[in-house]
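User: Predict the complex.
Assistant: Input components as received:
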Amino acid sequence: MTETTHLIHSYLRSSKRFPHVWCPGCGIGILMGALIRAIDHNRYSKDEIVLISGIGCSGRLPTYLDFNTLHTTHGRALTFATGIKLAKPSLKVIVVMGDGDAAAIGGNHLIHAARRNVDITAIIVNNQIYGMTGGQSSPTTPLGMTTSSSRYGNLEPAFDISRVVEAAGAAFVARSTVYHTRLLEQLIGKALHKRGFSVVEVICHCVTHVGKATHMNSAVEMMNWQRDNAVSVRKAGTLSAKQLEGKIVTGVLVDREAPTFHEEYEKLVARVGVDDSAV
Amino acid sequence: MKKNKRNERLLLQGSEACARGALQAGCRFYAGYPITPATEIMEAMAWELPRVGGVFIQMEDEIASLGAVIGASLAGVKSMTATSGPGFSLMQEHISFASMAEVPCVIVDVMRGGPSTGLPTLAAQGDVMQARWGAHGDHPVIVLAPSSVYEFFDLTIKAFNLSERYRIPVILVADEMIAHMRESVILPRAEESELEERPRPTVPPEWYAPYKDPGTGVPPMPAFGEGYRYHVTGLAHDIRGYPTIRRDEVGELMARLFNKISKDLHLLQWFDSCYAEDAVVTVIAYGSVARPALRAVKRGREKGLKVGLVKLKVLWPFMRRTVMGFLATSTKVLVPEMNMGQLSREVKRVNQGQCEVLTLNKVDGSMITPGEILAKLEDIYP
Amino acid sequence: MKGRVEIYEGWCKKCGICTAFCPQDVLDTTGDGYPFVRAPEKCTGCGWCEIRCPDFAIVVSPYEEEQEK
């Protein structure tokens, strides 16, 4: 067995049955591999990682991995993550969410976690659809796309999740597709390393539902689309807004220094003074 | 917050007593959202927690607040939140989660007039059924109701103890009156309070099955980061914590969730009584209504009426044994409530025709007075 | 030949990603949809099939002469 696979297997729960739950060709599996390699590369111990998810296809990811894992409620993963990180700052807290999870039902939690700059890494799997429930339109479904809940075409413009969290104050924002697997791995690695709220938006294909809606019938076709429509941040700087329409800008979008909630809280504690006898 | 070093007499607001009780119980994490009439609890915790090595955070809503509380508890820290009706409704999703995943936490609901935004500054008891059945799915829960400033302190400590002992969300339903009134109290010092901690695993991580019944119905619970890398989910799960839809595994899980409480019902019969032993008409009350009820019963006795009071401190699981005892010895029972009749339904349910159960309901935002209860007692007295 | 590709059919869901994106056309698909190594000599050991496999069903190991002995 090679290093890569040996490494992956050492992070999979031996008590879980494989193959995993996702559809053939689903990009979440590719993301899971990239996440494992990035965690390993950063040399975190399994015991210090807490991997949290919400509800949906991505919600099943933590079950398979040998960390402290928590499968929470729909959209609320970041709230649990906030509690865990503040209660035990030594833990490395990673949250995996889908686009409906993070941007619709969890949109409020997402912007406030970014605003507070809680030291958490959020990986948002954006497949533009609610997959688990059968392909309903989400806040990132492209305008006009036909889904099972927008039978005559989606009327709503889509969220740009990365720009939302950038505006809300995230310390680090990056985007990759699952086709660009090595880039994805690198960006997750950087996000994990970053102090503060870091976000990696993962452009992922849903063969089962988006594939049907866009007449792309295989994971291969959809990943070809990712390859053909991705533009690096550097190249995007040379293109006009019109040229960038419909493109996926990949790479590090935001990387800034800002005090985290926990750092500010520690300063507050130092200022008011700990007094164990106060009770 | 003034220290309680020598059991001196303190003039405290109910909310402050609740916060003191939480801190004395070992609560070191609070997440909340402002709402009248529960805000004072949050303010007290915001002031005290940074000084005792704890964490306070104001979240973006009540859903987030209870989410953060559950997260902190999974990290091994005793945690709580407080809210009122509208916020309590938002918390129901996570009360259900905490029941299923068996995460200890304490939720204070300072009841105010409803429905909806209702009467934010006035007392009510409209959330009694919501506290029991508001969360989706059949789930176990414990609900306590204080009727004085001292009890708010005491029951907050007990709420933490029960939540740790049974790994269950424990809800305190106070009301605007109890939270805002001030009383002179003498509180026990920290070393005088008996505290309970959640059961801890005694086996090495490789032998640990996070949801396996150790015989008590309450599986041991390590904190995240202690080497027991286990899975927590709101999905129905097997003893390893992994999702399952197998009938035998789901059935066993649900049975255990309920049995861990129902096997100890005899330990959860907490009540005070006054003149109840020989009462012909017994008043069953809880929360702030128990106060005018006591006055009414005393005045009734002065008038020669054999009336008595039973004040319930545990609302859920309903104290069937205790209440049935008093139903058996009374001719009539009166249940005054600041709602349209919620706990009285339970009294009627367990009555089984033993005696006549009458209600006195008030939902206009004003307190039920001793005079109103006494008038009703005189009216129904056989 | 620098790499050696192994496929675990037990975990494979026949999505075709490995075959489609192999830069050297080492892999091909059988009639029933499973990938197989058609041109082992062309493998450069780049590992793209392994890291893009959503199901952890492919292993690429460095080719060593002694493996053949």
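Chain C has two helices and four strands.
Let me know if you want any component modeled separately.
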